[in-house]
Amino acid sequence: MPFDQGEPSALNRKDLKMKTPQVAALPGMTPLGINPNPVRKFVVGKTYTTRSICDYDTIYRFEIVARTAKQMTIREHGEIKKRGIFVRDGVEYCKPHGTYSMCAIISADREVE
């Protein structure tokens, strides 16, 4: 018989149970999937800079006024704006002028000292 439509036998019930998958640790991760390297975050009160992609001599400066886990409030030339935060390669980034072609992006590792 190719397929039995009846009640599964005890052997078949045992085979149907899910097995716990074996998780292999990725590079830079512990076996439980916890990243031991913390994310580099924006700090309230600090100033961050970036250069314009169109004009190398133009340098943008942004002060972090407040922040939450996914959003931050920035000040540029006295104007206050709220922008979203995203994480890439363990560093927080923000697009302070919005998302468009060749927009400025600030990163938490480009702090003014």
How are the SSEs placed, and which strands pair?
Layout (H helix, E strand, L loop, with lengths): L9 H7 L30 E5 L7 E9 L3 E6 L2 E6 L1 E3 L2 E4 L11 E2 L6
Antiparallel strand pairs: 1-2, 2-3, 3-4, 5-6, 6-7
Name the descriptors:
4-stranded antiparallel β-sheet, 113 residues, 6% helix, 3-stranded antiparallel β-sheet, globular, 7 strands, 31% strand, mainly beta, 1 helix
Secondary-structure class: mainly beta
Total of DSSP H or I helical runs spanning 4+ residues: 1
Over the alpha carbons, how many angstroms does the gyration radius reach? 25 Å
Helix content: under 10%
The strands making up the biggest β-sheet line up spatially as 1-2-3-4
Task: Report the portion of residues in β strands.
Answer: 25-35%
The H/E string reads HEEEEEEE
Counting DSSP E segments of at least 2 residues, the number of strands comes to 7
Biggest beta-sheet profile: 4 strands, antiparallel
Instruction: List low-confidence stretches.
Output: none
* Cα shape: globular
Mean pLDDT figure? 81
Distance between the termini: 77 Å
Would you kindly provide a written description of the structure presented here, covering whatever features stand out?
By secondary structure, the chain is mainly β. The protein has a domain of 61 residues. It has a 4-stranded antiparallel beta sheet with strand order 1-2-3-4, with no helix packed on it.
